[in-house]
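ingest -> validate -> predict -> emit
validate: passed (alphabet ok, no gaps, 271 aa)
predict: started
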Amino acid sequence: MWEDITRVTENIGNSDIFNLEMAGISYCDGSYRISRKKSRIYVFEYIIKGKGFLKINSREFEPEAGDVYIAHYGSDHVYSSNTENPWTKIWFNVRGSLVKNLMETYGLNNVYHIKNCNIENIFCRGLEKIREDLPAAHYNASLTVHEIIMNIFSVIRKRKEKMISPEALKLKNYLDANVSGTVTLENMGKLISKSPSQTIRIFKKEWGMTPYNYLLDRKIQAAKLLLANTMKTVKEIAYELGFNDEYYFSNIFKKKTGLYPSFYRAGGRGR
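emit:
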């Protein structure tokens, strides 16, 4: 086997935020095997051809051509190539708080293997940009990793939506569009011609929570962004998100995050 690897110097001053350790293409044979304990990096790999084996903590997968897999930071993992039909794969080894935050934001902390994820062009284009401009390698790699994560999220979301009942999806879209407004079960029920109790049941079956709790979570997420990125007062944010009482809003926010809004804004960030 052989590997075409690009290594770059550490991202001085910003390595805690994002650091590309190496990237490349591996032309594997049956001897190829990588094992890490409590990995200090994230590994993003696209399988161009062949088959192989992946174990992350206690979960096992068999990535093959057209698949993407993610070996997560902090995990125990091992991956190896099939002897008869070995991998050819393109990959990025990265670390830093940016990757951690992106994985969390896009809900990929428990995603390891994405079948038929047609994003080879993103991997190839990203590797090409890194090699063309090594002084900007970390910057270009960060953009590529963000693009990979966004596209994985998009693939997963589209597949889930195909499996979700049209009624439940319609209700969710309605709530997403009305985070700042007032929503009633009666109005939601009218959207799908169901009673309030039927509406709750349909929504909870697909999304694992009641419409009220889903909307409340969305409001809290919006409040976090407003607290972190604007100078609006807690009262203004409360009213903007449809809360008639800033004290009720503050108590709900603390219940959800562990901090009152003013402390969250001051840098506590909660949970």
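The two ends are 46 Å apart (CA to CA).
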